[in-house]
Amino acid sequence: MSGNLREAARRRRPDAVELLEKDPLRVQIARQLRAARKESGLTQAQLSEASGMAQSDISAMESPTGPEIESVDRFIRSCRPIE
Predict the structure, then answer these.
(1) pLDDT digits over 17-75, tens only?
(2) What is the CATH number of the domain that holds 23?
(3) What is the span of the domain harbouring residue 23?
(4) Is the pTM of this model over 0.70?
């Protein structure tokens, strides 16, 4: 985990660094979720509207301490370009 990410996590949750180092897959998933949303050209607010998920839940999923599998599925299914 990079130093900047580690420090940001520590400020948010003191126990987060330990959690992140134990579960690097969560870090990778969070990064991929954010990349998928950005690649789709969506803001968190737009994805919130498209998915029916709260923007705060999307933000939490994109943070490395975050995503639950059910939420990940809903997130990905909603990352489609708006027609």
Answers:
(1) 676 677 777 778 888 889 999 999 999 999 999 888 899 989 988 887 766 777 777 77
(2) 1.10.260
(3) 3-78
(4) no
Q: Which candidate, 71, 50, 49, 52, places its Cα nearest to that of 62?
A: 71
The tally of domains found in the chain comes to: 1
- Name every residue whose Cβ is closer than 8 Å to that of residue 76 and which is 6 or more positions away in sequence: 33, 36
Nearest to 30 by CA among 74, 70, 9, 60: 60
Round to whole Å and give the CA distance between 51 and 79: 8
DSSP secondary structure of 22-83 = H-HHHHHHHHHHHHHHHHTT--HHHHHHHHT--HHHHHHHHSTT---HHHHHHHHHH-S---
